[in-house]
Structure formats: C-alpha cells, structure tokens
Recover the amino acids of this structure.
C-alpha cells in the first residue's frame, strides 16, 4: 500500500482528499504546512507528497525546493485550486513531478498519483544498474493501449539510471514527459479524442475503449523512438492520426496553461525537457533533455 503525505493547511479540504485517497487504497498522513511535512518525512519517508501551494510558515514552493535538496527521489505532486499562478510554474521547475486540480478530486488526483508512482517505482527498480553502453537506441510500434506506456517508461528509466545522466528529480520528470507524449499520441492523435472532460471522465474512458475497436482508429499505431548517448536522451514519437493545429501549443512561460486539461501534457513536456519540436502536421514530436549531473561517461 503506497503512503501519501498530504500537505494542506485547510482541514475542510484535507479531510475530503484523505477520504478519496484512502478509498483508492492509499495510506494517508496529513500535514498542515511545509515545516510539518518535512518533520513527517524525516520520521518516515512516504511514497509521494501531495501538496497545496498557499500555506503558512512554509509554502508549497519552498517545500518542493527542500524536498528536492534533501530527498531527491521523493516525488511531489502539486494541487491546484483553479486560476493561473506563476508560482506553479516555479514549483514545477524547482522539482515538482506533476500537478492535479482540486476540482478533479474524485478522479484526477488519484490518476495523477498512480501515474507518478509507476514512474517512481521504475526508477527505484533500476538504481543498481551500471553504465555499459556508448549509444543506445530503441524503436517500438505500439497499439493504442495506454497500459503499455508504463513498461516503456520503466525501460527508459532503467537505462537512464545506468547512464547516470540525471538526478532523481530530472529522471522522474523525463518519465512524466515521455508518458504525456505517448498518451497524447494515442488519445489526441490516433483516437482523435480531446482532453478528458472533468464533468464526465467515465464517458471519456468509454470513448477511448470504443474507438480502439473502430476503424480507422484501431489500425493506427504509435511509433516511439528513443536514443541515449553520454550527453542527452532524445525521443521521437509519431502517431498516424490526422494531426492537430500547432498554433495552440503552450509556451512553458505561460502559467495559464496549468489549468487547461487539453494543454497540460504538452505544457509538462515543454517545462521538463530542454527542447520540444513538432513536425508541420503535428503528428510527430521530437524532444530531448541534456544531462544534468556529472561528466559524460567514457
């Protein structure tokens, strides 16, 4: 059972969050602010931290910075209350792994935590590997099955751990960017479905199931190419859909994209990676991240 530390200064908001997480099978501990959260982490490190940003004594941004400094392998997920706020962008750049809306309490927070924990567990499983290659490349052609994504991310995380290119925070962020890119290629690209509506997520999930069984969607594939060298990791992810309008692609400097479900994936990709580029039709994304720790191997 995964242990989640929820950092929220308002009991009226903390208690419903704890109820939802416990119902989903998580073990939950509450902390009223960042200082109390660090004390709780020192006592027993949780599997993930779910934190608000606006809090007394130590806010969420300072908490993210402290966790990255003291516990770099511990993933932090931000909770948003709506509206755009530059501080969320600062927190993501400071080391937060993801964010979820409080308005999506019944589904979004649980889904986000499960996604982050899958990535984090993949990292831990790969920690003992040692560097052994000068260049590594992989190519996959996958069906429109979102459940395949964690296996790809686990493989990439394992390899990146052995290459020692990134600290734990950057490694987690690369995994999130890869997850979002593949998810966008499957859902928005091949299945031609817009972002999940918060008011009816079950209808969205059902539409995904239906389109996976219908032509022309079921014949389409997502092509994933990954290259690792001593300087960086690069991804090329291509779908077989009709493409999409690139004019709405979010700039990572635009904190207003934080609350846009239809832009969230691309926003995270642009925030976490050093470069994100699309082809003219929007059916292929190339993204890369340069090493963040130590000298190149060799």
């Amino acid at each position: 059972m995964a242990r989640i530390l929820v950092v929220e200064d308002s009991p009226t908001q903390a208690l419903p969050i704890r109820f939802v997480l416990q119902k989903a099978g998580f073990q939950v501990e509450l902390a009223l602010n960042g200082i109390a959260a660090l004390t709780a982490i020192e006592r027993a490190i949780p599997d993930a931290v779910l934190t608000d940003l606006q809090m007394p004594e130590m806010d969420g941004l300072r908490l993210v910075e402290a966790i990255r400094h003291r516990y770099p392998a511990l993933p932090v997920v931000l909770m948003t209350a709506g509206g755009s706020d530059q501080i969320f962008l600062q927190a993501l750049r400071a080391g937060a792994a993801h964010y979820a809306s409080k308005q999506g309490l019944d589904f979004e927070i649980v889904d986000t935590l499960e996604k982050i924990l899958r990535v984090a567990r993949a990292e831990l499983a790969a920690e003992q590997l040692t560097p052994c290659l000068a260049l590594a490349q992989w190519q996959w052609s996958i069906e429109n099955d979102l459940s395949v994504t964690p296996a790809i991310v686990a493989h990439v995380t394992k390899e990146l751990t052995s290459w020692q290119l990134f600290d734990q925070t950057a490694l987690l962020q690369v995994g999130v960017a890869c997850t979002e890119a593949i998810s966008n290629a499957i859902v928005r690209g091949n299945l031609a479905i817009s972002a999940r509506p918060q008011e009816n997520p079950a209808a969205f999930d059902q539409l995904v199931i239906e389109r996976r069984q219908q032509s022309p969607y079921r014949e389409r594939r997502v092509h994933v190419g990954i290259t690792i060298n001593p300087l960086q990791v690069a991804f090329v992810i291509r779908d077989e859909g009709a493409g999409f309008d690139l004019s709405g692609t979010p700039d990572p400097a635009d904190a207003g994209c934080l609350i846009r479900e239809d832009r969230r994936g691309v926003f995270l990709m642009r925030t976490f990676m050093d470069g994100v580029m699309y082809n003219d039709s929007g059916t292929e994304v190339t993204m890369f991240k340069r090493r963040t720790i130590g000298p190149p191997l060799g």
